[in-house]
Amino acid sequence: MDNFSYCSPTRYVFGKGVESQTGELTARMGCRKVLVVYGGGSARRSGLLDRVTDSLRAAGVDWVELGGIQPNPTDDRVYEGIDLCRREGVDGVLAVGGGSVIDTAKAVAGGVPYDGDFWDFWAGKAVMEIALPVGVVLTIPAAGSEGSGNSVITKLDGMHKISLRTDMALRPRFAVMNPELTFTLPPYQTASGIADMMAHIMERYFTTTDEVETTDRVAEGVLKAIITEAPRVMADPCNYQARANIMWAGTLAHNGICGCGRKEDWSSHGLEHELSALYGVTHGAGLAVVFPAWMTFMASCQPGKIAQFGRRVFNIENSGNDRTDALAAVKCLKEFFKSIGLPVTLGELGIDNPDIPLLVSKFHEDKGLPFGPYHPLYPADTEAIYRLML
Ligand code: NZQ
Ligand code: ZN
Predict the structure, then answer these.
(1) FRET pair for 343, CA 20 to 30 Å: which of 18, 59, 183, 186?
(2) pTM above 0.90, yes or no
(3) Which residues of the chain register pLDDT less than 70?
(4) Degrees (nearest 5) of the Cα angle 126, 129, 135?
């Protein structure tokens, strides 16, 4: 096990009706006037936005709004949010939505106190130490942004989708999580969220650090819970207990607990971010295509941990051959994704003619050369993995 320092400071307020506490929680983080960020319509349609603003009003917190944030959020809305906050004297940001909304809120929060271009942080030209406090009302379990210090934004100029990872600055102060708010999710979004949370665990699980049994077992436990709960939630979208278990799994998958003491990989996320930047696909659905391809490639050069994943998570019998068991694990994972209605090829994802040379060059431009702590990827490897998605 490697040395580590882990802090997850977010207060998770979980259960039925908890959104009524949003105003009080916002006031408690010291805010008098916040920017309320929300998406393309679901929060308004469900009445959630009104309940949240009622709760702010009752707690004496004023607000201004930045709505209409789209999936795979872009830098233009961040600049708009930063200007609005400065003009209105805002002292905190409240995200009401999923990863796209939360990541926009976080980027605005980091950009307001910074004199330069907020993109400097994403471009690696500056290190974010401070940000306005961020609170979250979560409406989709998927990205795990409610507990992570990350924000993923696409720069429209060049369509560069980049993940900024901060240790503390962008970790939300609180996350309000009512599983009932997720009853209205379309099946594809529910399933994509499930793939994304599984991917967050797997990016950490596939590691070259050995002797991480405790963290491995935490990761396997959450993965097994997801695999058990997923069919229940797909069959009955209003099953509160199944929704609750999936929602909490999404947070544990990405708040860092599954990565303690080891090197993490994140190649599959990098490969997917190029797909969602260029083709606008849903991030989790993209991962359902990318991860099995990456694992198939790794079965030939670094099969050990993938075989262990198959044996422990999908109960594959140990054949004594890691490569064989790694390939069996890929088969199980693909079957699972298909069973909840997800694509497992680029064609099924809606990308019929992928520009693989462009995907490969953007991946290395955005992530580095080589990239991949589990097994370093050079352009020929990256191309081979994209081809395995066809
Ligand atoms: O915009 P609205 O109308 O709200 O619709 C959204 C959107 O179309 C809809 N939705 C959300 N809650 C709903 C709902 N529809 C009905 N009922 C509800 N309760 O779902 C759609 C997807 O929303 P989005 O916020 O894009 O989903 P998600 O949470 O999957 O976020 C994806 C983004 O997060 C990034 C991804 O790359 C992508 O840009 N990620 C962020 C991470 C982080 N910050 O730590 C880590 C992840 O790996 C990921 O990369
Ligand atoms: Zn993800």
Answers:
(1) 183
(2) yes
(3) none
(4) 120
